[in-house]
Design goal:
This protein is α/β, with parallel strands linked by helices. It has two domains: 1-30, no CATH class; 33-196, Rossmann fold (3-Layer(aba) Sandwich). It is built from seven helices and seven strands. The protein has a five-stranded mixed sheet. Strands 4-5 form a two-stranded antiparallel ribbon. α3 (65-82) crosses α5. The longest helix has 18 residues, at 65-82. The termini are far apart. The relative contact order is 0.19. Keywords: Glycosyltransferase, Transferase. This is Phosphoribosyltransferase. Belongs to the ComF/GntX family.
């Protein structure tokens, strides 16, 4: 017998165990790894399409905090599966536009990075400030690059081994901008995102 308190999968709405957010079948459908080569290598957990895109939108635009934990857990497992060298990593994240932070009340990449770093035991720091005038989601490829060009600044010296977290990689403009700031200052620089949007060409092979 179903009760009004029975939890349901956020994606397919099927009943699930208490404490879970999505069912096992939907979890399997989220994973589709790829790699983009820009200023540095950025690894993507999945594709920005259903059902992963729905989870990200629910998190970013409807302030569903438990999804940040789910996404952070997914990226932590992804990082382990990629078998990077065992180093003293520090975690940071791509900053959000001021209007985006004002509207949402939080930086999505920061929350995901927080859970990611907690699980792996890596310190989390804020490396960047953003002076972008418009939200990236509102812009096309050319304008996305123009919007972030020289608008993201380092606010402290970066550590030698750094992991940069973001939620969605579309054109790579923001990741490339932070990469250009770090590439000559770090020994190891790794980018990891939850999803890669497929409107633009990219390197699918890992």
């Amino acid at each position: 017998m179903t009760t009004i308190f029975e939890p349901h999968c956020l994606v397919c709405k099927k009943p699930i165990a208490f404490g879970e957010l999505i069912c096992d079948n939907c979890k399997e459908n989220l994973y589709s790894p790829s790699l983009s080569n820009g200023a540095f290598k950025v690894y993507h957990y999945g594709k920005y399409e259903y059902p992963l895109s729905n989870l990200i939108k629910e998190f970013k635009y409807h302030s569903h905090p438990k999804i940040a934990r789910l996404l952070g857990n997914m990226l932590a497992k992804f990082f382990i599966d990629l078998k990077f060298p065992e180093l003293n990593y520090t975690v940071s994240y791509v900053p959000s536009n001021f209007s985006s932070v004002h509207e949402k009340g939080f930086v999505p990449a920061h929350l995901i990075a927080q859970y990611f770093s907690d699980i792996l035991g890596f310190p989390l720091i804020n490396l960047f400030s953003s002076k972008t005038l418009k939200r990236q989601v509102q812009l096309d490829y050319k304008k996305r690059n123009e919007n972030v060009k020289n608008k993201i600044k380092l606010i402290q010296d970066p550590p030698k081994n750094i992991i940069i977290i973001d939620d969605v990689y579309t054109t790579g403009a923001s990741m490339n901008e932070v990469g250009n700031l770090l590439i000559k200052k770090c020994d190891v620089l790794i980018g990891i995102t939850v999803a890669k949007a497929y409107r633009y060409s990219f390197n699918k092979s890992l």
